[in-house]
């Protein structure tokens, strides 16, 4: 029974998080001594589809019907479920992205499968048990869940598994499904993407600012540091509520949850609502002039100092390092 992995695309291109999820699914397939089939839905070039073989997919199913070129939650779930049935797949893997969080339970319901969303490690297979470590309580804790159903759906948290270049290739096949009209009752009319910015959920590094920056006119140094590091920019809820930064940069329990390898918090006190959105970060650096700021309790590295003195020095240090690297 092969493993099936859904590979979502953005504007016809695959992001790094998709190569992570293909690598992750390949590791599961290897542990099960089976093959890995990928499914792509939408308008993706043949070269990009074949690229999935590099990360472990043995076969790629390409679905390119006109009605499915834009993401439609219920219809995409039907296609993925039918592909799993066609391939005889017992395990379906997808990214725990915004789309993936909507798809996972729908695919699970259609396959009568157990669902583990927010997975952060490979499943442990012992004594017939299939256990997965996942995030819980808005990322403030981990839970180990055991899937006892015959079919399983796993949604992998971005930046939780490394991209593994297998140097292999995959054959690409067209795949078609008769999707019911009822699956198109709710349609997205338009998706507007910020093409010149790094996506927050996929970012390896995030530089984030809070009210300690005193106003939107001071965000230049945050953006300069982010540009030097190849990072995405983010902010706390009070900052977006005040209109200093767009709500699309709001990180926290009521905003975007991120899981970068490095999160740099500048002038953010560390309210529990903000920590809920960044707790899956691997390394947290906090810059704040208040030594009693709650953020320091969860930081891996802390700098007690004025952001207007510390950040410019940090920028110069990064520039100096890059000049000699």
- Based on the structure given, which CATH architecture of the largest domain is correct? 3-Layer(aba) Sandwich
Please give the number of β-strands. Answer: 15
Largest sheet: 7 strands, parallel
- Beta-strand residue fraction: 15-25%
Low-confidence runs of at least 5 consecutive residues: none
Structural classification:
alpha/beta
Helix and strand element order:
EHEHEHEHEEEEEEEHEHEHEEH
User: What is the CATH topology assignment of the largest domain?
Assistant: Rossmann fold
CA(first)-CA(last) distance: 48 Å
Quick check: average pLDDT? 92
Count of helical segments? 8
What is the CATH top level name of the largest domain?
A: Alpha Beta
Overall outline: elongated
Kindly state the percentage of residues in helix: 25-40%
CATH superfamily descriptor of the largest domain: HUPs
Organism: Mucilaginibacter mali
GO molecular function: electron transfer activity; flavin adenine dinucleotide binding
Cofactor: FAD
Keywords: Electron transport, FAD, Flavoprotein, Transport
């Amino acid at each position: 029974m092969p493993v099936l992995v859904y590979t979502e695309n953005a504007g016809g291109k695959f992001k790094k998080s998709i190569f992570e999820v293909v690598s992750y699914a390949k590791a599961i397939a290897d542990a099960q001594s089976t093959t890995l089939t990928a499914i792509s839905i939408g308008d993706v070039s043949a070269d990009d589809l074949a690229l999935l073989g590099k990360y472990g997919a043995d076969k790629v199913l390409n679905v390119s019907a006109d009605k499915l070129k834009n993401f439609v939650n219920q219809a995409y779930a039907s296609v993925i479920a039918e592909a799993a049935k066609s391939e005889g797949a017992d395990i379906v893997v997808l990214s725990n992205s915004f789309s993936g969080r909507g798809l996972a339970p729908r695919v699970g319901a259609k396959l009568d499968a157990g669902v583990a969303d927010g997975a952060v490690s490979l499943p442990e297979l012992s004594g017939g048990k299939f256990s997965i470590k996942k995030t819980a309580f808005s990322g403030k804790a981990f839970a180990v869940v055991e899937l006892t159903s015959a079919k399983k759906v796993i949604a992998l948290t971005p930046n939780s598994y490394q991209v593994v270049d297998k140097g292999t290739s995959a054959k690409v096949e067209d795949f078609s499904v008769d999707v019911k009209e009822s699956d198109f009752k709710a349609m997205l009319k338009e998706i507007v993407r910020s093409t010149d910015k790094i996506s927050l959920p996929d970012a390896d590094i995030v530089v984030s600012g809070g009210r300690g920056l005193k106003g939107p006119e001071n965000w230049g140094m945050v953006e300069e540091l982010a540009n030097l590091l190849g990072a995405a920019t983010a902010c706390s809820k009070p900052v977006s509520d005040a209109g200093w930064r767009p709500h699309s940069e709001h990180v926290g329990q009521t905003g975007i949850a991120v899981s970068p390898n490095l999160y740099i918090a500048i002038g953010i006190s560390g309210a529990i609502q903000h920590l809920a959105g960044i707790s899956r970060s691997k390394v947290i650096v906090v810059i704040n002039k208040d030594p009693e700021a709650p953020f320091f309790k969860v930081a891996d590295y802390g700098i007690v100092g004025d952001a207007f003195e510390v950040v410019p020095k940090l920028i110069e240090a990064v520039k100096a390092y890059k000049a000699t690297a």
